[in-house]
Each structure stands twice: as structure tokens, then as C-alpha cells.
Design brief:
A hairpin with an 8-residue loop joins strand 20 and strand 21. With 381 residues, the chain is mainly β. The chain has 2 domains: 234 residues, Alpha-Beta Complex (Sulfite Oxidase, Chain A, domain 2); 111 residues, Immunoglobulin-like, CATH 2.60.40. The protein has 7 helices and 23 strands. A 5-stranded mixed sheet has the order 6-5-14-9-10. Bound molecules: ligand MTE. Ligand MTE binds next to loops.
Length: 381
């Protein structure tokens, strides 16, 4: 039997051994690109090195409450309904949407809980939720129609205040058996009319099944839950709308916050991440080109500072992208470690609003919006 095993070409053996599975995700999840976490797949940040500013669909993280539905684009319809319309409900096919003027926009989608494990590992605080490191983010070029154009064609009333897109994936049932219905999250009309897209293309291709085929909502700069995938209907309301996704989740809870939580989360926060495995090994006495990415929901990242001596001294990283709101910048820095032993790499971003990453993030029980400077451990040998 060992001889048979030896006869298997090495590449084949590796790919068989390393195809991880997440129930309900359609695309392949090779070990070198993803860490599977329940129904979700996290991008290994180091696998983004060399991928360019846009994250290929093959590398893009997947956050699924249940499973990816297989929808037929030709049969798909979007229903826009509610008392915030002047007439009755309106339906749009994909062909209807494609006849409207299209808009293309580069934007990241990032889960509100991206970086969550750092509350525990860096700050010693307990939090609940999917234990992401930093790979619950990707940046793509999205093409679609402005939600504003669709709402106006549906007959938007001047009394409308909120809209609530809902996905066509299965009902979400929590671990304790409560059925919360289909994923849906209210969006204030002001944001809906500003820069939100109903996207049907990702990086020049039709949306892949896992990322919302045939149409998803794309809410630039906001927490990922706002960007509802596989959208099937949108309620338009003259009264504020609620769902578990803006009441029980996606608010800040815990000491320092009201019992019902903060206001619902909107914009993403600020982060910097090295494209390097955790505990990577680097040779002493050699020059290493370290690369990474920084982004902010508040504005473009204009500056990234690097420290290899626990924050005593800082120097600027080279930026490789023009800073743009809603996107990330790639950066690099050269480092020649002298002494073997453990070391820590820091990177700290500043955005156009003047915001700088802090040393610690204020705790919240669900571990949202981690923005502290990450202490990335490496070993020099
Ligand atoms: N939309 C639906 N219908 N179902 C979902 O499970 N997950 C949300 C959002 N939209 C979700 C959804 C969350 S929490 C995030 S972070 C993003 O989709 C993830 O988008 P991606 O899987 O394309 O990376």
C-alpha cells in the first residue's frame, strides 16, 4: 500500500488532503487560501500577498448564516414593497436592472466581527461570535445599478425613512433553536439613496453563487451585514424598521453601553494587517520586504506607520495605492532583524478624518469593530 501511495503524484495528494469543507459553500476552499469556521470561510491574509488591490473571487471570504442558495438568474425577481411607496409593490427582473444605467465601484466588504479573536488574545477579554482573525474582508470591483434609481422607479414616497433588503437564503435558526427568519437588515433611507448598489457583477464577472448570485446589496464602508446577498425583496417603510440584525446583533453591548446596546453599527473601523502568517519565521541578518494592507470605513487611509520595537520608534511604510475612501491601500516596509528570538511587528494606520489606530479597543460583548494596533508575533532565527 505504501508503494501505491508513493505513486500518487505529489500535487494531487496535496490538493486532496487540503480541500477543506464548509457546509453550504459552493466554491473550493483550499487550505492555502481559507480557514473554515462553521458555515463560513476566512481568507488567510498572507494569501493576499501579490493578488493586487482587488481580491479575486477565489480568495474572497464567505460569511453565510446558513448555506449558499442556487438561484436561477432568469427566474429571479426583486420585489420592492411597503407603505413607503406611493403605489403598490413593484417587481424587477435582472434584465430590468441591466436596462438601468450601471455604476461601477471598488469597495471592501468586511464583517463587523473581523479581528474578533484579538479581544481575547491581545486584550484578555471574552467575546462571542465567529472567531475570525483578520481575513473576514475582501475588496472587489462591483458593478450594478444604484439602489436610489430602483427605489425612485418603484415610486418612493417622500415619507419613507427606512428600507430593509432581505435575502433568499434559508431561515436562520440560532444555536438554541430560535428561528429568526431570513437574513434582513434595515438601512436608513439617506444611506440607501447615497452610494448603495444592487450589484450583479464582481470583478467583471457575474456574481459567484457564494457572494450573492444573481444580485446582492453593496453598502460601501459599512459593516458587511448591510450588504445583503441573494436579495429577493426590499421593504420601504415610513416608520423605522427593526430585525434581529439591528437589535440583538450588530450593536455594541456591555459595560459603557445602554442595556439595549448602542445605536446599530454603520461604518466599519480602521485596521492594518501584515500579509504574513502568525508566528512566521524570518532569518536574522537578511533584509525582508514586509507587505500589508490598511483600510478604514471612515475615509481613505493616507498614512501607515511601522514599529518593530514595541512602539518605541515608528517609521512610515511605502503606500502602493492611491488612498481612496471605501477601499484599502497596500503598503510595504523593509526590515533587517539583527538578533534571533521572538519579535513583534506593529502597523498603525491614519485616515483622512485624522483617526489613528489606538493601542486597545474598548470591549463589547460580541467583539465588533476591533481597531487596535495588532501585535503580530514573528520568530527571528
Ligand atoms: N446576506 C444573506 N442573505 N445571508 C447572509 O448570511 N451574511 C452577511 C452579508 N450578507 C449574509 C448576507 C454578512 S454577516 C457579511 S460579513 C457579508 O454578507 C459577507 O459577504 P461575502 O460572503 O460575500 O464575503
Amino acid at each position: 500500500p505504501s508503494r501505491l501511495a508513493d505513486a500518487v503524484p505529489a500535487a494531487l495528494a496535496v490538493s486532496r488532503a487540503s480541500a477543506a469543507r464548509a457546509p453550504g459553500i459552493v466554491k473550493p476552499l483550499p487550505d492555502e487560501l481559507f480557514t473554515v469556521r462553521g458555515t463560513n470561510a476566512e481568507t488567510k491574509f498572507e494569501s493576499l500577498a501579490g493578488t493586487g488591490q482587488l481580491t479575486p473571487a477565489s480568495h474572497f471570504f464567505v460569511r453565510n448564516h446558513t448555506t449558499t442558495p442556487r438561484l436561477d438568474a432568469a427566474a429571479w425577481k426583486l420585489t420592492v414593497w411597503g407603505d413607503g411607496l406611493t403605489g403598490g409593490a413593484r417587481e424587477f427582473t435582472l434584465a430590468d436592472l441591466k436596462r438601468l444605467p450601471s455604476t461601477t465601484r471598488t469597495a471592501f466588504v468586511e464583517c463587523a466581527g473581523n479581528g474578533r479573536t484579538l479581544f481575547a488574545t491581545q486584550q484578555g477579554q471574552a467575546v462571542s461570535g465567529t472567531p475570525w482573525t483578520f481575513g473576514a474582508i475582501g475588496t472587489a470591483r462591483w458593478r450594478g445599478v444604484r439602489l436610489a434609481d430602483v427605489l425612485r422607479r418603484a415610486g418612493l414616497s417622500h415619507r419613507a425613512v427606512d428600507v430593509m433588503p432581505r435575502g433568499l437564503d434559508d431561515d436562520y435558526v440560532t444555536a438554541d433553536g430560535t428561528n429568526l427568519g431570513r437574513v434582513r437588515r434595515p438601512l436608513p433611507l439617506a444611506k440607501a439613496l447615497d452610494d448603495v448598489l444592487l450589484a450583479y457583477e464582481m470583478n467583471g464577472e457575474p456574481l459567484p453563487p457564494d457572494h450573492g448570485h444573481p444580485v446582492r446589496v453593496l453598502v460601501p464602508s459599512w459593516v458587511g451585514i448591510a450588504s445583503v446577498k441573494w436579495v429577493g425583496d426590499i421593504e420601504v417603510s415610513t416608520k423605522p424598521l427593526y430585525s434581529p440584525w439591528n437589535t440583538d446583533f450588530y450593536r455594541l453591548f456591555g459595560p459603557g453601553h445602554p442595556p439595549e446596546g448602542s445605536t446599530p453599527l454603520t461604518r466599519q473601523t480602521l485596521k492594518s494587517v501584515y500579509e504574513l502568517p502568525w508566528n512566521a519565521t524570518l532569518r536574522a541578518g537578511e533584509r525582508h520586504r514586509l507587505t500589508g494592507r490598511s483600510w478604514s470605513g471612515g475615509g481613505a487611509v493616507t498614512r501607515v506607520d511601522i514599529s518593530t520595537d514595541h512602539g518605541t520608534t515608528w517609521h512610515r511604510a511605502r503606500l502602493h495605492d492611491v488612498p481612496r475612501h471605501g477601499s484599502w491601500v497596500r503598503w510595504s516596509t523593509d526590515w533587517r532583524p539583527r538578533t534571533p528570538g521572538p519579535a513583534t511587528l506593529l502597523a498603525r494606520a491614519t485616515d483622512t478624518t485624522g483617526r489613528v489606530q489606538p493601542g486597545t479597543t474598548a470591549h463589547n460583548t460580541q467583539g465588533y469593530l476591533f481597531d487596535a494596533v495588532v501585535r503580530h508575533p514573528v520568530t527571528v532565527e
